[in-house]
Design goal:
- The protein is mainly α.
- Helices cover 66% and strands 5% of the residues.
- It has one domain: Orthogonal Bundle (Arc Repressor Mutant, subunit A), CATH 1.10.10.10.
- Helix 1 packs antiparallel against helix 4.
- The N and C termini lie far apart (64 Å).
């Protein structure tokens, strides 16, 4: 089954462990062992999470001798943020209108 890149990104981001891995990788490269340290899961489980992140294009894994350092690939995150942006703007506008309406109600109450 082929999934479009945006769907793959959101599916990868749906898991808190994968989001934590991405947060860790935002500070620099890390090995599978380093990435598994803060979690109460096995290195093979971390590897499964890494494969999902790789398929979504969110990380790449290099080869340095016996090490396989992982590195963040930010482009899919930017594409997801670009997709979300119009909805963020919509909600900000709605909240601004609500704030204006509540302010009007307060003014009317004070006049009574």
């Amino acid at each position: 089954m082929h999934t479009d890149p945006l769907s793959a990104t959101f599916a990868a981001l749906a898991d808190p462990t994968r989001r934590a891995i991405l947060a860790r990788l935002s500070t620099g490269e890390a090995t599978v062992t380093e990435l598994s340290e803060p979690f109460n899961i096995t290195p093979p489980a971390v590897t499964k999470h890494l494969k999902i992140l790789q398929r979504a294009g969110l990380i790449v894994q290099g080869r340095e001798k016996q090490w396989r350092p992982c590195r963040l690939q930010p482009q899919p995150l930017k594409e997801a943020a670009d997709w979300v942006e119009p909805y963020r703007q919509l909600w900000e506008q709605r909240l601004d209108r609500l704030e204006d309406y509540l302010r009007e109600l307060q003014i009317k109450r004070r006049r009574k």
